[in-house]
Structure formats: structure tokens, C-alpha cells
Design a protein that fits this description.
6-stranded mixed β-sheet, globular, about 45% helix, about 400 residues, alpha/beta, 2 domains, 18 helices, 10 strands
Length: about 400
Amino acid sequence: MEALKATLLFVASSAAVLLRQQHMPTARGLRYVSFGDAQPRSTLVVDCTHPSCRQLTHHLKLEKQRELHLDVGTLGADSTTEQLVKAATLTSFLCPLRGSPFTTVSSNHFDVDSFLSVWVACNPTEALVHKDLLTKAATIGDFRELRLSKDDGTADEVSFKALAIVCWLNSEERRLFYRPFEGKISRAMGEGEEGDLKFHHFLPLLGGVLDDPMKVEDQWKEEYGRVVEEYSLIHQDTATRIERHDDISAVVIRSKQPLHYYSLFSASIGLDTVISLHEGQRYEVELKYTGYIDLKSRPTLPRVEIERLSNRLNELEKAPGVTWHANRINDSGPLLRLETDRHLTKAERYGHPFERPIYSSSLSEKQFCDIVLSYFRHAYKFSGVTPQNDWTWQAYTSFNKAIDWDAWTSA
């Protein structure tokens, strides 16, 4: 297995280097600037919103964002990185010397999709050489959706390489800086803008790693190995481990211990709610990030507020010292889970399930699953809503307000 993975990475790397040796005409891209230095007329903002700068982003659930968003042939892309890759095919759009109205690019946070988007804007010609690799890396990093095989069952070498790229970013980010959303640490480091030091560090390095991730294998192999091992385990017996409920866009995933997000969510592709069940009656429910952004590849159901569900579970829960707690739907990844009197921080919730404590419930697995599944089924059946694209936060709010929850609690 290790030899296969190494071979796949070598083949993918060699192909990329060969393409680069064809001497594609280069075009200088935009220059990265801190978010606080973004200028309305000259700065392209990516993967976030800005009150006055033009934007390329998949965060389009507010009217102001839609007004400032640029199309330039990027519609149909799920990640912001994919939008930038499509924009890079328009040679002048990201190249000031060829008529681009922009000279700089910025984002207000550092994560995989945000960083890759900025890198593409700075290196549009090189990005086209790696367009499939960049797009898959953004999908793994942002949506946590990993698929290591093609439709015919053969290994997808580009996905293996994309996983290595993302694990390199993750591992080096933590080793050299701090975890995502740990703002106190960023301020202690003297960072003026959240993630600014990370951008300046990684932007010059990514091109070389895209060409040959094996040269920095020691920096990503630990996380990569864990993900591949868990991925293989969870897909060995899908009949007992993975239970899809397409009518409510949910999946129930059973694993002995909490997993890495990339392996866990590999079983959730095409769905938006993950119900995780672990030994010892430890449970979590998560509304995936796919319901937070403007997903284009498939229609989605609206997010259901899960606070009422946590209230119902607390009426039944008998485990001492813990209560069910849920985040609002405007969180990037709302979690429903048992917590003590100290709730998880955003950084802890964004971190992988195996990194946080998951407490035992007094509810049996069947009892818990029946309640959770019936909750979502009632919400969607009562409203008669069908999957669609282009949801807004206003539409989410209207959908949730119209649900008759008394009918569910009395059932």
C-alpha cells in the first residue's frame, strides 16, 4: 500500500513537471496584501466578503455579497479556488500588465481554500498547470470530502497528491504558527491581520510542493498516513459502517473511535448532515460546510436549526455532568454534541473529531438515531421543501420559522 501511494505521487509529480517544461508563456499575477490594506478599486478579495471591494467567493448568502461578486465565467464552481482557476483561463483578468483592473489580492482568513485562491491569483499561469490538483485540494480542505478512487474503482492519483498537499499545509501551519481560529495566539505573535504571517510564509513555497510533494514528505506523511488508514477502514464494510438517508441529505457513520475529518466525511459526499456514532454511546451531529456556502455542483436542502433537537435530547439525557448543546445554523459547521459547563471554542470545533473529547450519553444508539432522523424528516416533510441552488440566509430563516415543531414533539 505504501509503495502504491508513493508511485501515485511520483507519477502525478512527474506529469506536472513535464507540463511545466513545455514553457507555457508566463503572465505575472496579482500581489498579496493584508486584508486591512485592501483597496476598493485595485484589490480583488477572495473567499470572503468586503464592504466595498469586488470579490470572487462562494460565500454568497447575503445581498451585499451578491452585488460585489464577479462572475467572469466562474459560476458552476463549488470552491473559491475553482472559481479562481476558471478566472485564470481569462489571461487578462488576473494579470495587471494585460489589462486587469486589479493589482492586489487579499482574504480575511487563512484556510486551505482561501490560501489556494490567493495563490492562484498571484500565479495564474502556473495554476493552470495544476488546475485539477488545486481544485481537488480545495475540496478536501474546505468541504473535508475525500475520494481516493475513480468511478471505475481505480486509484485516483491526483486525489492522493491533493491529500498530500493539504496535509502539508495543515501540518506546517500548526507546527510553525497556530491552529485555525486561534486568534489570541495570532495576536500574541504580533500579527496585524488573522493569518497574514501564514500567507507570507506559504505563498512562495506552494509552487515547489505542487510540483513534487515527495521532497517535503516528512512534513505531511504523519497526517496523510492517518487519513489513508482510516479511509480504508471506514470503507471496508460500508453495509455496517455507512447508512445513507438521501431523503434528508444525511448519513449515519459508525466508527470505533472519533476520526480525522477527511476520512470521516469521505462517506458523506453528496450529503449535508453527518451523524457520527462511536463506541461507548458517544455521538455527534454536524451540519456540513456545504450548507454554509453557495454550492453549485448539486442542489441542497436548507439547513435545519438544531437547538430544538438539543432541547429534546436534554429532556431524555441522564448522563451526569453533561448537556446537549447545538450551534446556530449561521455557524460554518454547526455541531450538536454533549458538553460540560465549558463549551468548545471555535478552534476546537474546527479541529478534527479525534482531537476533542466526545462524552458518553445515557441514550442508546438506536434511541439517539431515531430521534435525530425523525427531527430532520419532520422538518423537510412538513415544509415540503425540495433541494435547490442559491439559498440565502433569509430563505433559511423563513424555512425554519414555518416548521410546526409542536407536531413533532407530540408525535
